[in-house]
Structures are given as C-alpha cells and as structure tokens.
Amino acid sequence: MRRRMKHIALAALFVSCTTSVMGVDLTKAYEMPDASKLIQKDLLGPPQKYTMPKSCNLNDPAAIARGEFMFHNLNGKKAKKNPPKGLAKFIEVKGKDGKVKKKPKQYGNCVACHNIEGAVGAGNIGPSLMNYKALFIETKVRDPQFVYQKIADPRIDNPETHMTVNLTTGLFNEQEICDYVAYVISDKKKK
Amino acid sequence: MKRLLLPLAVTVTVAFAGEQFAMSDADRAMYKEMQENNPAEIYVEEGGEILEEQLGGDEALAKFLGVSEKDLPKEIATFPKYVPKLGNVVGLDQVIQAMQVEQGKERTKLKSGKMFSMLAYVKSLANGEIPNIDLNEPHEKVSYDLGKKTFMTKRGGRGLSCNSCHSKDVVGMVLRTQPLPDLGKVGSGSTWPAYRMTKSSLRTLQRRYQGCMKNALLKVIPIGSKEMIGLEVYVTKLAEDHKQPIAIPGLKR
After folding, report:
1. How far apart are CA A153 and CA A45, in angstroms?
2. What's B126's DSSP letter?
3. Would you call B173 and A125 a contact, using CB atoms and an 8 Å cutoff?
4. Distance from CA of residue B98 to its chain's centroid?
5. Rounded distance, CA B188 to CA B196, Å?
6. Alpha-helical runs (H) found in chain A
7. Is B6 inside a domain boundary?
8. Is there a smaller number of Cβ atoms within 10 Å at the N or the C end of chain A?
9. 3-class SS at A30?
10. Hey, how many other C-beta atoms are within 10 angstroms of the C-beta on B29?
11. Domain containing residue B185
12. How confident is the model at residue B31 (pLDDT cuts 50, 70, 90)?
C-alpha cells in the first residue's frame, strides 16, 4: 500500500515536472490583441448619391471663408490662424466614461492633394483646382451639383478614386460640404 | 547626342530633389551625417545586451527557433512566420515574449521601447539577407491575404485605405510636400526598426503603420494583432520582391 502511494506520488511529480519544463503552453504566451472589431466598426459604407441642398448659398462670403479655411487646414490643433465665423477649432465629444472631452475639429486638408489659389505646400495627387470657375463652371464642363457630389462622395463619379470621402463618413455635414463647393467655385481673382 | 543627354540629366536631378522634397538643406545635411552614424545603433546594442543578460542571447534564440546559430540570420529573414509551438504567424517581438514566458521572466510589452530595442537587435542579426516569406506555408498565405485585405480596406474619418496613398499609380506624387514612397522599392519591410528623425526615436514597422493610420484618421489598431502581422507579411513580401536586403537600423525622415 505504501509502495503504491509512493509510486503515485512519483508519477504525479513526474507529470508536473514535464508540464512545467517541457510542456509549457506557449500559444498564449505572447500578446495578440484583437483588431477585427475595431476595423469592423471603422469601415466605410457603400457609395452614396447626394443632391446639393437648396439651403446651399454658394455666394455667401461667410460660406466661402469657411470653405477656404477647411480647404487649407488639417485640423484645429494644427491650424495657425483663427477660423472664420461659424467654424470652431475644437469640438466637444462625450467619451465612453461619460466625460466630455475637447477634440481638435477636423478640416478637409484638401491642399494636401490639390493646388489652388494661395496654396502653400500643395500636393498633386488630385488635379489642380486653380481658376476652377473660369475653366470648369463658366465653360459648363462642371456644375455645382457635380462638385458637391465629388466632395461628398467621389466614388459615384470614380469608383477607383484616391480622394477622401467627406459626407458618407460623417466627418462633415451638408453645410460644410456646401462651404467647400462655395469656395472651390468662387471667383478668387477679385480678392 | 548632347541634346538627348540633357533632358536625361534634368530628370535625374528632379527625381532626386523630389525624393527629399520634404527636407530642408539643414535636414539633408543631418540625414547624411546620421547615415554614417545612425543614432539608433545604441538601441540595437542595448537590445542585444538585454537579450543576452535576460534570455541567453543568440544561442538561446536559435535554440528556441530550432535552428543552429549559423542559420539564425536566414531564419530571421523568414519572419513574420508560422511558429508551430506558438500556434500562429508571429513577429520576432512575439517570439521574444514567448521566450520570456518559457524562462519564467517578466514579459516585455510589445509597444514598449525596450521591446523595440530587442526587436531591432534580433532583426539586425539578419542584416544583408533578403526577406524570405514563404507563401506556400498555408498559415502564412492566410496571414498575407489578411494583410493585403487590411491594406486595401477603406475606413476611418476620411474613407481612406493604405492603398489610397501607397498604390502603384500614386507613388512619387506629392501629398502636402511629402512624396509618396513605393513601400517595396524603399524596402520598408527590410529597413524597420529605424531611427525616425522627425520623432527622434527608434520606431518599428508596426509603429510606423500606426503613424499613417493616425494621420489619415483610420482607427489605430494594436501592435501584434493578426491584421498588423498580416500587414507586416504583406509589406515584407514587397521588399522581398524588390530584393531589398535587411539593413537595421534604418534611417527615416
């Protein structure tokens, strides 16, 4: 009886030794956090058609000024100048903990890809929008509705586009898309 | 003949200027100096010391991976790869974590500077090797496909994907003074961890991805996730296709 006990004890010892030295389960030994849920929530919705709202006042100097500011800046934290009336540098968002936090307001930073009058450090991924009114609007090659759709969701016109999606993502609202259109098609020579 | 040569010379200088467009003359001088004396060497050295003191150095690493020390460089060039005893396609940083756990040591966080140093050291052991991703290995193929899908997926506040700025047809174009790099040609998969001049610190490839995600308003996903490893497999394969030898630490703007 005592001998049997000893055997069992030895066997148990052996088992525990092998699992701790040789059989460590290493499949959970390293970090491998989940990202799929984060990505799922962050996905871009399907292309959407939009009609430019009647409330769009394309000749409103205040709208043009806001459009200009958003066109040339990345966000409220980076913007050096003060934004025109009707635009903020920061927005307040409620965090998961219920606390309200200040976050920099995002702008279009369109100048990252497009050249335009007065641009500093413009990129060239998108076409130049210089002299847009004379070249495209007055010649009727484009109309404000086209420009509105392009900025709101460029995939309708070009499914392969490299341009940012600005309304379908919810980053901007209809008024802000109007502001961009107003600026892009405004007469900039008079300034 | 002369008339043919002239435009050629012009294109070359323009291409060169374009390459370092975003740098001032002072920055460029500093870049040159740092190329000879990369500030990140010290991190690589430090990573080697930690590995040696804590885990038994190259010898222990080779043993853990089941190869001889002589074959270690070739083995490292195959990462990220499927490691059966870890049950996943993993990066070298995750291998280091598994070694720590096996030896009963404290696990260093993937996103810590200490891990970046160790990772840089381990990858530098393969300097001169061409990356060697095995897409015939089924797990690695799955990881590659997930990486490619992640690369192409449009998301975030601006509806952009990695491909929006790194596809063939936009390479070399300028995004707000920064020329868009061809990730294969510049050997991203071979040249990170690297010293990032604009951040004055050692950064890893996955940390670099996070930078692009943050800038372009894509939700930043965590280092070590399957998607991040997939992206690393995908981008490392691009470096392999361009025969870009591993050169750690890299030096980046």
Report:
1. 11
2. T
3. yes
4. 21
5. 13
6. 2-21, 36-42, 61-72, 132, 144-152, 174-184
7. no
8. N
9. coil
10. 11
11. 17-252
12. confident
Task: Say how many CB pairs under 8 Å bridge A and B.
Answer: 123
CB contact under 8 A, B101 and A44: no
Q: Does residue A72 lie within any of the structural domains?
A: yes
Q: How many domains does chain A have?
A: 1
Say if strands B201-203 and B194-196 run parallel, antiparallel, or are unpaired. Answer: antiparallel
Say which of A33, A39, A162 has its CB closest to residue B153: A39
Mean pLDDT of B16-20: 39
- The residue among B25 and B168 whose pLDDT is bigger is B168
- Residues A106-134 have pLDDT tens digits of 999 999 999 999 999 999 999 999 999 99
Average pLDDT over all residues of chain A: 90
Q: In A, residues 118-137, which contact B (CB 8 Å cutoff)?
A: 121-125
Question: How many domains are there within chain B?
Answer: 1
**DSSP strand pairing (B178-179 vs B174-175):** antiparallel
CB atoms under 10 Å from CB of A137, counted, come to: 18
Sign of the dihedral through C-alpha A54, A58, A62, A65? positive
| pLDDT for the residue A15 | 47
* The pair of three-digit structure tokens given for residue B206, joined into one six-digit string: 């996955």
Can you tell me the distance from the alpha carbon of A152 to that of B61, in angstroms, rounded to the nearest whole number? 53
- Give Cα B85 to chain centroid, integer Å: 24
The C-alpha angle A179, A185, A189, rounded to 5 degrees, equals 115
Closest CA of chain B from A134, distance in Å: 25
> What is the residue type of A110?
C
Check whether A185 has a pLDDT greater than 50.
yes
State residue A131 phi and psi, 5-degree precision: 55, 35
Q: What is the CATH number of the domain that holds B66?
A: 1.10.760.10
